[in-house]
Amino acid sequence: MKRSILSVLTFLGISLSLMAQEKLNSDSSATSKHQVTIKGKVVPYSATVGTQPVWDNDGKEVAYLFYTYYERNDISDKANRPLVISFNGGPGSASIWMHIAYTGPVLLNIDDEGNPVQPYGVKDNPHSILDVADIVYVDPVNTGYSRITDKEAKRSMFFGVNADIDYLAEWVRTFVNRQNRWASPKFLIGESYGTTRVSGLVNRLQGNEWMYFNGVVLVSPTDLGIDREGPIAAANYLPYYAATAWYHGVLDPSLQSKDLEEILPEVEEFTVSELIPAMVKGGFLEEERKESLAKRMSLYSGLDERVILEHNLAVPTSYFWKELLRDKGLTIGRLDSRYRGIDRQDAGTRYDHDPALTAWNHAFAPAFNDYMINGLNFKTDLNYYLFGPVHPWDRSGDRTGENLRSAVAQNPYLHVMIQSGYYDGGTDYFNAKYSMWQMDPSGKLKDRLEWKGYRSGHMMYLRSEDLETANDDIRDFIQKALPEKGAPAKY
Pfam families from the entry (predicted)? Predict the structure, then answer.
């Protein structure tokens, strides 16, 4: 890895390398200089690791957030330099995933399909978006190195759909103020639950902090509070089942011989036009029609027709992950169904563990800790929470899909891009499309909403080919969302 050894350390308060076990200094930073080659061109940049407080309504410090901020340092015109604010999800997940595997200037050591390899560590990321935008990766309270500092603070201040949005909006405003980035075009990117977070944040920041954005990127989005109960919830998984069955080569030869993106439109059309209307009838669906549908579903899913009928056409995802390769003694992953696992026994209705998630933990945790110490000269005895203690999480009042629609409607500059992996069973690609379709029932905003699919799972960027394509898509999205000079924000 070609990285500058020279570190220019700027300390505000106590040195970050000498913090106590329980928490860091709540308002400190350390900056080092580096360079990376992106798209064949050398990009010099500064990397700042730091902490910034969270205050309550009375101005009392109650917590701090840890962040890593990458800023290209050969560009002085910050007014025209985009800023990307990045969150992961969980809830309870740190920002590590997109930080060292997707958009950032370093990339963890994995093979071309995303599997762990040794030695652990990171290398330069030739596909990073740092060439076109500065990036800050933020760890919400009780994730990464971020911690509550006031023992009297109520957990409900942080751990819920709307509480999360409330304090993060204030934190982002403060960060932008401190970094003098008010004039910059701004973008939010969130992955998984992070899509819930940024969909609510953009509306709150525009409406309460008067901070306006050019774009929001939703990576493997959640349901965003958009209703899909009953038949729709059950039927919408079929296209994902078809993609997964195709990947594992268990479809009927008439379909298996076709390319993935040839068969998915057929499955999607069947789902919308035939399966959902039929399932609406529930137990009153004609038996002959039910059997006919089960036969088609079997063709598309790789599951036995009998299994589908036993589940009244509504096969749970947990059962699918256990059943699809049961005859081979294998399970498949939830978050990325390309991964295969081995259970204690072949019998049962769900797997023992998600083989995708265990593989990712294996790859990420050692690499990130090594990078903090040896790449950014950041040393602490504090444990970096990949998944932190944030439960119980209050999920009530989730209207984040509507929040995002409102933000787009009120800001003619604002664009949205959704990125999905075809093999993601946690936040599947077809439900992401469904959310996009339902977000704007008027259809008047659809020219600023777009969806992109990739042949991988929840973290589509772990596959080398998709890493390049997905970053290029973000790069193009950023450029497209920047208005021409002097173009007014109006309809």
Answer: Peptidase_S10
Q: Examine residue 11 and state whether it is found in any structural domain, yes or no.
A: no
φ/ψ of 399, rounded to 5, equals -125, 35
The per-residue pLDDT for 8 is 34
Rounded Cα distance, 248 and 178, in Å: 50
Answer yes or no: are the C-beta atoms of 447 and 432 closer than 8 Å.
Answer: no
Tell me the residue range of the domain where 395 lies. 16-226+361-481
CA-based nearest residue to 83, from 67, 97, 94 = 67
In which band, very low, low, confident or very high, does the pLDDT at 21 lie, cut at 50, 70 and 90? low
d(CA 28, CA 10) in angstroms, rounded, equals 9
Residue 471's SS3 state is: helix
CB 48 within 8 A of CB 61: no
Three-class DSSP labels, 334-355: CCCCCCEECCCCCCCCCCCCCH
The CA distance from 342 to 331, in Å, is: 6
Name 136's bridge partners: 69, 85
pLDDT reported for residue 5: 30
Q: Going by C-beta distance under 8 Å and a sequence separation of 6 or more, which residues neighbour residue 490?
A: 412
What is the DSSP annotation of 32-96?
EEEEEEETTEEEEEEEEEEEEEEE-TTS-EEEEEEEEEEEESS---GGGS-EEEEE--TTTB-TH
Say if residue 171 is in the same domain as residue 87: yes
Q: 3-state DSSP helix/strand/coil percent for the chain, to nearest 5?
A: 40, 20, 40
Residue among 167, 106, 180, 181 at smallest CA distance from 138? 167
Residues 140, 260 share a domain? no
Q: Which of 65-74, 176-185, 319-328, 360-369 has the lowest mean pLDDT?
A: 360-369
Q: Which two tokens stand for residue 479?
A: 């450029």
